[in-house]
Write a structure and sequence with these properties.
Length: 128
Amino acid sequence: MVAYRIDRRSGVATYVQIVQQTKQALRLGLLMPGDKLPTAREVVEATAINPNTVLKAYRELEREGLVEARRGLGTFVRKSLGTAPADSPLRTELDAWAARAREAGLDRDDVAALFTAVLEKHFQGDPS
């Protein structure tokens, strides 16, 4: 099950953070088709956000065809995204790179800017 973490200082709407974190879990294989998402009540208890915010995020995921709500049962994953499992050797390399960047004195924004620049270079024109 996914555990949502809300960053109230990020400037990103709370429901969007939930959508993004769910998609990331789907891409990494942490959530698989058939898995149940936490109930709105569980998310509210863990994050202290409004239940309507959770429901809005789940509706967005449902609209995108990623999850389905089953009346009286909960919300379940319909399909996965991507092919980058959480235990991928590439993730290990990226983890080591991020650690080196931090040791070199780069902050989170610097690392994000570098990573984004590299992504732009290698995935230019890629619709995903």
